[in-house]
Design goal:
The chain has 176 residues and is an alpha+beta fold. 24% of the residues lie in helices and 39% in strands. The chain is built from 4 helices and 12 strands, in the order ααββββββββββαββα. The chain is globular.
Length: 176
């Protein structure tokens, strides 16, 4: 239930605050930038998040690179004290997902993010969030692989430079 509430807040933020990816530098909710990661804060309800865009994207169909139109591609780490949510890993790939989990590969170690609806995926439990976040903090890059409802495979590679500082800042701003 709490994860659906977070999804609602994310969607609300995207609609009323403008595009997160395109508006990261213009948003008044942005409070910090740590290398390849940005930190945002919202006050009602209190919510803080670190977010990054991929450094590389690739779309294939039957093993061949193909063009694809996608919306925003973002990897988030959320903190929401009112919901006792701390370090939730969330991904949106900018397209309708197939009914299959998204795979996150962090320097060779793989994790699963079940799809929540057709455009969002996040870890199944807070324990999974913690394991993935710990790996992200130690890693150099994260590769997120998903499959679209049209059968295309997407591979998005995120830099993890600045992630630890960004998540620490987001957590600090949402504590207390």
């Amino acid at each position: 239930m709490q994860k659906f509430m977070v999804l609602g807040v994310v969607l609300w933020s995207m609609v009323f605050s403008g595009s997160m990816a395109l508006g990261q530098n213009k948003s008044t909710k942005k409070v910090a930038e740590e290398k390849d990661w940005s930190v945002f804060v919202d006050s009602n309800p209190k919510e803080c998040w670190a977010v990054s865009q991929p450094q590389e994207t690739r779309v294939t169909l039957n093993g061949k690179v193909v063009p694809a139109q996608r919306g925003e591609i973002l990897l988030f780490v959320f903190y929401r004290p009112g919901e006792d949510l701390s370090g939730q890993i969330t991904f949106t790939g900018g397209y309708p997902f197939a009914k299959k989990a998204i795979e996150v590969d962090i320097d060779g170690k793989k994790y699963s993010l079940p799809t929540v609806d057709d455009r969002w995926a996040w870890a199944a439990t807070s324990l999974d969030d913690k394991k993935i976040l710990d790996a992200l903090k130690k890693g150099g890059k994260a590769t997120v692989t998903g499959r679209s409802s049209r059968g295309k495979t997407t591979t998005d590679t995120f830099s993890l430079q600045g992630l630890t500082a960004a998540t620490n800042e987001a957590r600090k701003r949402c504590s207390g």
